[in-house]
Design a protein that fits this description.
By secondary structure, this protein is of the alpha/beta class. The chain has helices at about 1-10, 30-35, 35-45, 65-85, 105-115, 140-155, 165-170, 200-210, 210-215, 220-240; strands at about 10-15, 20-25, 50-55, 90, 120-125, 130, 140, 180-185, 190-195, 245-254. The strands form two sheets. Strands 1-9-10-8-5-2-3-4 form an eight-stranded mixed beta sheet, with helices on both faces. Strands 6-7 form a two-stranded antiparallel ribbon.
């Protein structure tokens, strides 16, 4: 009964008293499948959002070799980000499909947090499964789990000068203790949500920029596929957010 009450509880509005966010995910298109409607609305409000991707998605298309796929997917990600008002997109060049949780990944993300000094850090589901509110669900990929967990840890690492001291001595990156929240998209246990209506159409256009990936993913008309998928996501949240279509997040205060 407790679990059922928690799953039907109302979601709180996402905080808006911030100016800078860093979104950290594993692959091109991760943010577009998850939360770009919220990002579009935030940038409209004058907030700065930077994207940090652990890989270039080079192992994501079976018919295109990684050396050719990486620059293609990078270009699509930059075009996709621009649709929702994000002009800065960075890549860490970890290998797609075999990203490892560990010190190297934590250090890279902590360095980005120190560079960009966000108040809000956004990442994707770090748990073993997608969905499965009533048990089960779909198994999550190792890359998503590794990047999500490392991002949660790096938010603390970024503020401690004695963790990765080489970031100071080698890169001049002083500690940043200003992260106030880490928001996890795609979770089955959300706590907060952001209204999807102002940014929804741009979220559709943003995902459509990933043409090469969508082309091999489905035989459906691309816009029909994208619109149906994204609308289903935001409508599922509406019952817990005053009837408004929304992007759900699990918010971890720092």
């Amino acid at each position: 009964m407790t679990e059922q009450r928690e799953q039907s509880a109302s979601l709180q509005p996402m905080p808006t008293d911030w100016q800078r966010a860093l979104a950290v995910v594993a692959h091109p298109d991760d943010l577009e499948y998850g939360c770009s409607a919220a990002i579009a609305d935030w940038t409209d409000g004058g907030r700065e959002v930077v994207y940090l991707l652990a890989t270039r998605g080079e192992a994501g298309i079976d018919t295109i070799a990684p050396a050719e796929c990486a620059p293609l997917r990078e270009a699509e990600q930059r075009a996709s980000a621009a649709v929702v008002g994000v002009s800065r997109v960075e890549f860490l060049d970890h290998r797609d499909g075999i990203v490892e949780y560990g010190l190297d990944l934590r250090r890279d993300i902590a360095a980005a947090i120190r560079r960009h000094r966000p108040e809000l850090v956004i990442t994707l589901n770090h748990r073993d499964t997608w969905g499965g509110d009533e048990g089960g669900g779909y198994w999550n990929t190792p890359d998503h789990k590794a990047v999500g967990r490392a991002t949660l840890d790096a938010a603390a690492d970024a503020g401690n000068r004695w963790i990765f001291p080489e970031l100071i001595s080698e890169q001049g990156l002083e500690p940043w203790n200003g992260v106030r929240w880490v928001a996890v998209a795609g979770t089955s246990t959300p706590t907060h949500a952001a209204d999807a209506r102002p940014g929804f159409e741009r979220s559709v256009k943003s995902l459509l920029e990933h043409k090469a990936y969508i082309e091999v993913l489905t035989d459906q008309d691309p816009e029909e596929y994208v619109r149906t998928f994204l609308d289903g996501n935001v409508q599922r949240v509406a019952a817990r957010f005053g009837g408004s279509p929304a992007v759900a997040f699990e918010l971890f205060p720092r």
